[in-house]
Design brief:
Layout (H helix, E strand, L loop, with lengths): L2 H21 L10 E3 L3 E12 L11 H14 L16 E9 L14 E5 L7 E6 L2 H14 E4 L4 E7 L1 E5 L5 E7 L7 H13 L4 E5 L29 H12 L4 E5 L31 H17 L4 E3 L8 H5 L1 H9 L4 H18 L3 E5 L1 H6 L7 E5 L5 H7 L3 E4 L2 H4 L8 H6 L9 H4 L2 E8 L9 H5 L2 H10 L13 H13 L20 H12 L3 H19 L1
Parallel strand pairs: 2-3, 3-5, 9-10, 9-16, 10-11, 12-13, 13-14, 14-15, 15-16
Antiparallel strand pairs: 1-8, 2-7, 4-5, 4-8, 6-7
Helix pairs in contact: 1-19, 2-3, 4-5, 6-9, 17-18
Length: 557
């Protein structure tokens, strides 16, 4: 038997036990803060309605209405719900959902209230679901949770909610729950970016970190400097300024902020295709020329344009992996360094701090990769958020200095590292060794990073999911509700991965490395969903999954 076969046997035999534990429990991902449930079943009316009587939120922008429509779409899973309700006891039919939102404001920003309370059904209105939230964005999370309680019954052809009455009280553990996508290494079409945003909302992630440009390409239109996107791969692999505004709006209506990244001074070779004077020389093309005032005028123009469409309070200015050797070997720059009494390292600090001042002048607070903190942390603006990626121990140093931090350590939360299994994503704790409550509050949250060297529109979804979902629960669910052993949640995560597939998201199978292929015809989702729908006993589930493992064993061996 090969190693792969042996590993699959262990995984699926274990899932045979874990799935059984979760079939009779709550199959919602991420796990809410507090849950109680009953043992009855109710049915959704075929004209299920949204009711907002008494809400202070007018929904003039129709964010709630659109969220409700999306919820109905994913609940139906593209099926025709044409079952006959005439024979169903009317007391078991849910006519709609009553949503009560206390804030009239729908401005989305870091730290917006995302809590909600969900009652299925409402004690006061037993033929309605009751959802209340401080903001419309909390209500959107409540709708996502409700969607996971609903099931299409292929026999009755009705939407059912099992185990009512439900009471769910929920709020996120961290206010920053991010996913990075990289559109420089491979261009991602706008429809694919929107699909990623939709899937983020399913997992309650709330920040899309858009690493827009890098060494390889500059695909975004910048009105102030229109030749910058000459650095795109091709004329068709570009984003207009309006495209970017549409992506921001699309995300905002789903409760997701967009963090734009302009990585400087390194990772910027592509800038010089449109403006060659930004290169130190034709033969040495990055970092950006620190001695040229035009460099900082371009940065100012880009950030000015950014401020018109990217409404998140933060902008990411990169600052990682800067090799100053082009500066110290290019004659006109070495002359400038000598005049300003700087070496390469000091010039790196000068560049980062000057870029920070430009960003601050446009109303942004700054995120920088951790090298800036490691090299000159005491010089950074106090409005800096340090983005940890190189490894452990940095976050505790950052918060001890009084700065804020985002955790993305590459050995646990880099999605392009296909050898990192979902269990490691789940176990990665942003507050490791940070015990002081004041310092804990400086950790904004965390982010999983989908770097683009080996992903394009054909495989980005299966590389992100389901591993990103494991991190999403770590960032959402209260610490004391998280499983100490990730295998305890394997069945529930497998259910969520199957749910993503049903919703049109190309999540990879849970049992395997990142971006793994299905094992054999039928696969895990089909067996898992049959078990859930048929309500099999624990022994029957284990037996069927064991037979599946035996089949895999024979095929793989």
């Amino acid at each position: 038997m090969g190693l792969r076969s042996a590993w699959l046997v262990v995984v699926f035999l274990f899932l045979g036990v874990t799935v059984a534990k979760n079939v009779s429990g709550l199959n919602v991902w991420p796990m809410p803060k507090w849950v109680s449930r009953g043992h009855r079943r109710v049915y959704m009316s075929q004209d299920f309605q949204l009711v907002t009587d008494g809400s202070k939120y007018s929904d003039g922008s129709e964010i709630l209405k659109d969220g409700f429509t999306r919820m109905l779409d994913v609940v139906k899973v593209a099926h025709v719900v044409d079952g006959d309700l005439s024979s169903v006891d009317k007391s078991l039919i849910i006519k709609g959902i009553h949503v009560l939102i206390f804030s009239p404001d729908d401005q989305l920003q870091y730290g917006v209230a995302e809590s909600y309370k969900l009652l299925v059904p409402s004690p006061e209105m037993p033929d309605y679901v009751h959802l209340e939230a401080q903001t419309v964005y909390g209500a959107l999370h409540g709708l996502q949770t409700f969607s996971q309680l609903c099931h299409f019954n292929f026999t009755s052809r009705l939407i059912e909610v099992h185990m009512v009455p439900w009471t769910i009280i929920d709020q996120p553990r961290f206010s920053y729950r991010g996913l990075l996508i990289d559109t420089s290494r491979h261009y991602q079409p706008v429809p694919m970016i929107k699909k990623v945003i939709d899937s983020m909302a399913y997992a309650k992630l709330n920040v899309l970190h858009w690493h827009i440009v890098d060494t390889q390409s500059f695909p975004l239109e910048i009105p102030s400097y229109p030749h910058l996107w000459d650095g795109a791969y091709s004329v068709s692999e570009r984003y207009t300024f309006s495209d970017a505004a549409e992506i921001v709006s699309y995300a905002q209506r789903r409760g997701i902020n967009v963090l734009a990244e302009l990585d400087v001074p390194g990772h910027a070779l592509s800038w010089g295709h449109g403006y060659p004077s930004l290169w130190p020389s034709k033969d040495c093309q990055q970092p950006l020329d620190v001695s040229n005032e035009f460099t900082f005028k371009v940065i100012d123009g880009i950030l000015s344009d950014f401020s018109k469409i990217f409404k998140f309070k933060f902008v990411h200015l990169g600052g990682d992996e800067v090799d100053p050797s082009c500066w110290t070997t290019t004659p006109h720059i070495t002359k400038w360094l000598k005049e300003h009494r700087m070496n390469g390292s000091q010039a790196y600090q000068y560049f980062v701090l000057r870029a920070q001042k430009i960003a601050l002048s446009h109303g942004f607070e700054i995120v920088n990769w951790e090298e800036t903190f490691n090299d000159f942390g005491n010089k950074l603006s106090r409005k800096t958020v340090v983005h940890n990626w190189l490894g452990g121990g940095v976050a505790e140093q950052v918060v001890a200095s009084g700065l804020r931090c985002i955790v993305s350590n590459q050995d646990k939360w880099y999605l392009d590292h296909l050898d990192i299994p979902w269990e490691e994503f789940y176990k990665n704790e942003p507050l490791t060794n940070i015990t002081n409550p004041e310092q804990q509050s400086l950790v904004l949250g965390g982010e999983v990073c989908m770097w683009g060297e080996t992903v394009d529109g054909s495989n980005i979804e299966q590389t992100i999911w389901p591993r990103a979902a494991a991190a999403a629960e770590r960032l959402w669910t209260p610490y004391d509700k998280l499983a100490k052993d990730p295998e305890k949640v394997a069945g529930r995560l497998a259910h969520f991965s199957c749910l993503l597939n049903q919703r049109g998201v190309a999540a990879a199978p849970l049992a395997g490395p990142g971006r793994g292929a299905p094992i054999e015809p039928g696969g895990f989702c089909s067996i898992f969903m049959k078990i859930v729908q048929n309500g099999r006993t624990r022994s029957a589930m284990s037996a069927q999954l064991s037979l599946f493992v035996l089949e895999v064993f024979v095929v793989e061996s």
